[in-house]
Design brief:
Blueprint (H helix, E strand, L loop, with lengths): L1 H6 L10 H10 L5 E4 L7 H10 L8 E5 L4 H10 L3 E4 L4 H61 L2
Parallel strand pairs: 1-2, 2-3
Helix pairs in contact: 2-3
């Protein structure tokens, strides 16, 4: 699968166990993780759970890969924080399609978060402008009222 992904233009960093996966993500967070459930030290469910509790890594999409095709394994993968599940034997076209889809969704999510931050800043600016404008109108209204009171002798 490494060769298939590299052939499609993806940069791939393969590791052989859960501890190395956690260390690799800590050192340089990837854009997406393909994670086997059966690892020699920590199982993939636990690796995923650990990554999802870390605020620096919780947004990384994790696609589980496993020979386990039972519903319980799939449900546990999603409960651990996985976003997709591919069963072995893997079909290269399917994995490439899923990787491309989840990377595109991640980019859209990042763009949405940036747009929301921009909108929040703009809303704050508009609220500040509105408050200043209201204060100016209140001062002007008070001056008009004071001027009318002087003219009418009230």
């Amino acid at each position: 699968m490494v060769q298939v992904l590299q052939g499609a233009g993806y940069r791939v960093r393969a590791v052989t166990n859960g501890e190395r996966a956690l260390a690799a993500v800590k050192h340089s967070p990837p854009e997406l993780i393909l994670l086997d459930i059966r690892l020699p030290d920590i199982d993939g469910f636990e690796v995923c759970s650990i990554l999802k509790t870390d605020p620096m890594n919780h947004q990384i999409p994790i696609i589980f890969i496993s020979a386990l095709d039972d519903t319980n394994a799939k449900v546990n993968a999603f409960r651990a924080g996985g976003i997709d599940y591919v069963t072995k034997p893997m079909h290269p076209e399917e994995v490439l399609a899923r990787v491309a889809t989840h990377l595109a969704l991640r980019q859209l999510n990042i763009q949405l978060q940036q747009a929301n931050k921009h909108l929040a800043i703009r809303l704050n600016e508009l609220e500040t402008t509105s408050t200043v404008t209201s204060s100016i109108f209140q001062v002007a209204a008070n001056q008009v009222a004071d001027g009318m009171a002087l003219r009418t002798g009230l």
